[in-house]
Amino acid sequence: MRFVSEYRDPVAARALTSAITELAGDDSFKFMEVCGGHTHTIYRHGIEHVLPPSIELVHGPGCPVCVIPMGRVDDAIAVAEQPGVTFTTFGDMMRVPGGNGTLLEAKARGADIRFVYSPMDALELAQANPDREVVFFAVGFETTAPSTALTVLRARDQGVTNFAVFCNHVTIVPPLRAILSSPDLRLDGFIGPGHVSTVVGNRPYRFIPAEFDKPLVTAGFEPLDVLQAVAMLLTQIREGRCEVENQYSRVVRDEGNPRALEVLAEVFELRPHFEWRGLGFIVNSALRLRADFAQWDAERRYEVPGVRVADPKACQCGEVLKGVIKPWECKVFGTACTPETPIGTCMVSSEGACAAYYNFGRLHRDAAVSLGRKG
Amino acid sequence: MCLGLPGQIVDVDGVDAHRATVDVSGVQRAVNIGLIVTEGESVSVGEWVLVHVGFAMSKIDEEEARQTLDFVRELGSAYDDEIADFGRPTG
Predict the structure, then answer these.
(1) Pair A66, A40: CB distance under 8 Å
(2) How close B36 comes to chain A (CA, Å)?
(3) Stretch B22-51: mean pLDDT, rounded?
């Protein structure tokens, strides 16, 4: 498959890991990635086990499904259970447990809840079913928000009135700042989120070298991309540089996507604050529809309980999301909390650190441990 | 969900300026190109784009793609040693 297979070349991967081992030398490094896609790639391709043990990859709050608090899932279910509503959602949100169960369970009880691949599918559903009120559960960082924005603009331009968006889009910079300001964590650099960066470019990350003295390399999602980004981070450190670099230059431009940024600004505004699972309330970190688009805003059209639901006591998703503990260090990992019976969102979403590790990482780790290497 | 896939434009809709058909690994689907089509600049059949939730997010720059791979090949001796090891018979 073009633009995929070439970046999985094992010979090239081993050349990169040799270069990385040489650059790392006798020192230890901890790099954080903040994208569910990177977490998935790292576990799926066993990247941590081809890197020298001195390099540790930490998973940050990069999964937009994982950071949605339980109370917001309850709000989604409340909207879905309104008479006449067809509630549409991306697949990963279906099994996220709120305080009162999941969307999938609500569907089993009779609510009209459907999976869509694209927000545009939801709009087309509304146009095809004028007697239904179609609501789209909008989730995602800046990668996905412009697609929601274009869909809302199209709804307006085509006069579609039976369509609304339940907006839970979040932005990448505030949680990065929260992580960097946290005393729990000592990091040496960041692997930047490749697809968020197709929209926002590389400039928003400049505060990281400037204020916190850490380098960041925006990376693609194939194994060679991640390895090359690690090599670039180490090279910066060895050369005494500290800057934002772009490994994913085939897709990410420094200035991002101007049209995407334009539609974001036209349709959305920042919420003063928003609760992130595991990180608490963060100022100016999430989006809502502007007043001009009120008629497509599900929160204005429907009553939502808006109740704050605390995570179950056993759940340690917050610590996993901040990279403070690894999935296997969570007390309920693999026992009470599995992909079939998830307690927290890190296990539900296929990009969550725990699900990724459960599905791909355990065998690698067992093998590594039995070979006497660090797991 | 956050995954983006490379796909090739196989058809551009003559009526809807924001619609194209994209082939991702043999599967074809209508994709919205509204985020990458600006005044005076459209997409052509044969171009590659990154697709996320039914929208093209960016064109794939083939020159940059090649340079990314060249970087690895330029690691020089490490890469050559690896190729040599790969071809060397055991024992």
Answers:
(1) no
(2) 7
(3) 88
d(CA A16, CA A36): 23
Record the tokens describing residue A42, joined without a space.
């790292």
Q: How many CB pairs under 8 A join A and B?
A: 150
- Of A143-147, A263-267, A327-331, the least confident: A327-331
CB contact under 8 A, B1 and A12: no
Instruction: Tell me how far apart the alpha carbons of residues A365 and A373 are, in angstroms, rounded to a whole number.
Output: 9
**Maximum mean pLDDT: which of A95-109, A258-272, A353-367, B55-69:** A258-272
**Which residue of chain B comes nearest to A349, CA vs CA?**
B1
Which residues of chain A make contact with B3, given a CB cutoff of 8 A?
Answer: 37, 40, 195, 221
**Residue A316 sits at the chain B interface (C-beta within 8 Å):** no
Q: In angstroms, what separates the C-alpha of A18 from chain B's closest C-alpha?
A: 7
A1, A3, A152, A350: best to mutate for the B interface, most B CBs within 10 A: A3
Q: How many CB atoms lie within 10 A of CB A173?
A: 16
Return the higher-pLDDT residue of B83 and A72: A72
User: What is the distance in angstroms between the Cα of B1 and the nearest Cα belonging to chain A?
Assistant: 7
Predicted confidence band of residue A21 (pLDDT cuts 50, 70, 90):
very high
Q: Does B12 touch chain A (CB under 8 A)?
A: no
The pLDDT value given to residue B69: 75
With 60 as the cut, is the pLDDT of residue B91 above it? Answer: no
Confidence of residue A363 (pLDDT cuts 50, 70, 90): low
Cα–Cα distance measured from residue A6 to residue B62, given in angstroms and rounded to the nearest whole number: 13
Nearest CA in chain A to B81: A15
Give chain B positions within 8 Å (CB) of A118: 32, 53-55
Contact A121 B67 (CB under 8 A): no
pLDDT at A165: 98
